[in-house]
Structures are given as C-alpha cells and as structure tokens.
Amino acid sequence: MSCQNSDMPDLTQQELFLSFCKNTAHSAGAMALEYFRKPLKKERKKDNSVVTEADLAVQKFIESQVAEAYPEHCFFGEELGKSESSGLAEFRWVVDPIDGTTVFSQGLPGWAVSIGLLHRDRPLVGCVYLPVTDEMYSAAHDLPSLWIVDYSGQAVTHVNEVVKDHDPRSFLTLTGSEFHRRFDSNLPGKQRSLGSTAHHLCLVARGIGNISFMRPFVWDIAAAGLILERAGGSLLCWEDEQPYCMEEHMAPGTSRPVIAAVNNVETLRLAKKLIVRKIDK
Q1: By the 8 A CB rule, do 279 and 175 touch?
Q2: Rounded to whole angstroms, how far apart are CA atoms 43 and 118?
Q3: CB-count burial class (<10 Å; 0-12, 13-18, 19+) for 189
Q4: Closest C-alpha among 221, 230, 226 to residue 257
Q5: pLDDT value of residue 200
Q6: Helix 11-33 crosses helix 53-69 at what angle (to 10 degrees)?
Q7: Spatial contact of 138 and 88, defined as CB atoms under 8 Å apart
Q8: What is the pLDDT of residue 264?
Q9: 181-201, pLDDT tens digit by residue?
Q10: pLDDT tens digits along 213-230
Q11: Cα(266)–Cα(146) distance, rounded to whole angstroms?
C-alpha cells in the first residue's frame, strides 16, 4: 500500500493511537446501532450512492472525538466532504462512518465502522468494527492484525493468518455489487457480495475469503488494507499485479484502478485466468 519509505512513530505512539481508534470505533458503532432497523432519512449523493442521517451523525461524532484528542491532526471522511487544513498533513484520520450504507439501510448485518490513521499518507493504524456481531479487526504498522469477537467483553482474540489455498474450486471470492457488470467470471468457487469493502478485506485477512475485487476510495481501505497487509495479504492492482499505492490516490477525483485483496500474488494470477474484465467505468 506504500510507494516510499518514511519514518513511522514509535511503537508506544502506535499503541496509543490504536487504542483511541478502537475505542472511538466501538462508541461510533454503538451510536450507529441506535439508528439500525429503524426508519431513516435517506438521500442520494452525486454518484447515486445512498447516505443516511446515521452516516452523517456518526461521522460528526468521530470527527469531534478526533478534534478533541488530536486537534493538530487532519480529518478526511466520506460524508460531508473533507474537513482539514490545506496541504499534506503529517497525520490524517480517514473515516468511513458506515461502510456498507446500503445494507445498513436495508437492515442487513454486514456493515462496519472504519477508522484509519495515515502518517504522511501511509497507513499507520486502523480498525474495522462490525457492531451487529461485535467484532473488531485492528492493526498497526508494527503490530500484527487482530480479530476480536465480542469486543465489548474482549472474549476471544485471534491473530490473523491468511490462507494459502490455490485450488480455485474452494475459492471464496468477495465482490462489490457491480462485479457482474465489469467481469465475466468462470471461477468454480463461491462468490459473495456482503455490502462492505472493509468487511471483505478483513475476511480475506482472516483467511475466510481468498480474494476480493474493488474500485476503492481511500476511506474504503485506509484501515482494512493495513489489517490485510499485517496479516500477510496484499492489495494488488488488477492490470499489472503491482502493490496498490495509496499515496497516488489520495487526491479527490483521482482515478481508482480495480484492485484485488489477496492472500498472495499467485491467487490473483490464478483468478485472472478464469475472469475476463469487460469494462472500466
């Protein structure tokens, strides 16, 4: 996910940032649950995606927490545009308050709160919290990925290790809702679209999914991409199989290539033999 080397904050700082990140995501998730499966005010954004009153309220809450704890940091959220000083910030919080707004508004459980912290536009810490199932995925640059089930009670903790299965008959491919419009697929395994890009990446990191296809915005992958990477997986560009470079795609309006979250590059090469890309739009 990175194009260049840079000095990262030390481990103690990373742990402090990550603790704040997880606590904030948990509180934001509890707030989102107050809106879940209840009548919602909804509208369409310019890209025709759905935004609800819950998205806006949760993002405002997260932004207020960041502003109180780290007033010198920048903030970049999916909703309401970006709220930050001009220029390149050393620290930038990147937030998707409800990743999977459509499934959230439909009362389905696969949505998540995603919070990542970038240091000079390189992923430093990140967490993805699924409030309905009370699962927390997290990682830091110098810490392994963790998957905590029953986060409120800290009941079960697993260190993620991605699977290395290359048999396409057993593949679980996780896709966006537009996958069938962009690809013809002959993968003999299963395909699923659960509604949240961040959730998909975490499932690959956890070893359940083999590959996930997406055209991401930075808030989709700022946290989950790091979680995948620290679990031993990769974000690779579809065309050239090179690592996805987040720094090149931070600017608004920047074209996002199709990328794949995979357990390793051989998985992508195998999938490309069985998937034909139709269009790019």
Answers
A1: no
A2: 30
A3: middle
A4: 221
A5: 95
A6: 150
A7: no
A8: 75
A9: 778 888 878 888 999 999 999
A10: 888 888 999 999 999 999
A11: 24
**Residue 207 identity:** G
Residue 4, phi-psi category: left (phi > 0), alpha (psi -120 to 50), beta (remainder): beta
Task: Report domain 168-277's class.
Answer: alpha beta
Strands (DSSP E) found in 183-242: 183-185, 190-192, 211-214, 234-237
Q: How many residues appear in the chain?
A: 281
- The full set of domain ranges for the chain reads 11-159, 168-277
Rounded Cα gap, residues 66 and 20, in angstroms? 9
For residue 267, what pLDDT is reported? 83
pTM for the whole structure: 0.89
Tokens 């990262």 -> residue: 8
CA dist., res. 205 & res. 220, Å (int) = 15
What CA–CA distance (Å, rounded) separates 125 from 217?
17
What gap in Å lies between CA 276 and CA 106, rounded to an integer?
31
Give the residue ranges of the chain where pLDDT is below 50. Answer: 83-87, 281
The architecture that CATH gives domain 11-159 is 2-Layer Sandwich (3.30)
Vertex 128: Cα angle to 107 and 27 (nearest 5): 75
Q: In this predicted structure, what is the pLDDT of residue 42?
A: 73
